[in-house]
Specification:
Blueprint lengths: L2 H21 L15 E4 L4 E3 L9 E6 L4 H17 L4 E7 L5 H11 L4 E5 L3 H5 L7 E5 L5 E6 L5 H6 L3
Parallel strand pairs: 3-4, 4-5
Antiparallel strand pairs: 1-2, 1-5, 3-6, 6-7
Length: about 170
């Protein structure tokens, strides 16, 4: 095999390797999966489960933290989506317990007006059940309890994600 043919082969393999993540979901709960239940707590310390919300109508979950830059970047879009879809979709913010006590999450929610329900994932049960790869991980679930969207980052198209579940 001559050098130019080898170079083309290497470039082709690299192109496939780089492009593959664009076409495949490589982390988080699978699209089309049945949304699992998880045990959490309210910000007041009462027990709560995701089954209180999932399967009763469309749900948007965001795995969130006070220290998460992507979560802060997502706040305006989340507030706009809640204003637009809040009567049709249950918004549930899951405050992870990593480097944030429940009191900090509660104070942040009040100060910045985070919409919807906020639950605290003290033991990481929800994060594990949804295989959350990071904070600002969004999962949209339809009324039948099926995952229709997942995404990570501060610039997700929440409008398009929610429309997949309606």
């Amino acid at each position: 095999m001559d050098l130019s043919l080898r170079m083309r082969a290497v470039v082709s393999v690299l192109a496939i390797a780089v492009a593959a993540p664009v076409f495949a979901q490589d982390s988080g709960i699978a699209i089309g999966a049945k949304a699992p239940d998880a045990t959490l707590e309210t910000l007041e310390g009462a027990p709560a489960t995701l089954s209180q919300y999932v399967g009763k109508g469309p749900v948007l979950l965001e795995f969130w933290a006070t220290w998460c830059g992507n979560c802060k970047q997502m706040e305006p879009a989340m507030k706009a989506a809640h204003a637009k879809y809040g009567r049709q979709v249950q918004f549930v913010t899951i405050a992870v317990s990593v480097n944030q006590p429940v009191a900090r999450a509660k104070a942040y929610r009040v100060k910045y007006g985070i919409p919807g329900v906020m639950l605290y994932d003290r033991k990481g049960d929800a994060g594990a059940a949804y295989d959350a790869p990071a904070t600002s991980y969004v999962v949209v679930i339809d009324k039948g309890g099926v995952v229709r969207y997942t995404g990570v980052g501060g610039t997700q198209d929440l409008d398009a994600a929610i429309k997949r579940a309606l």
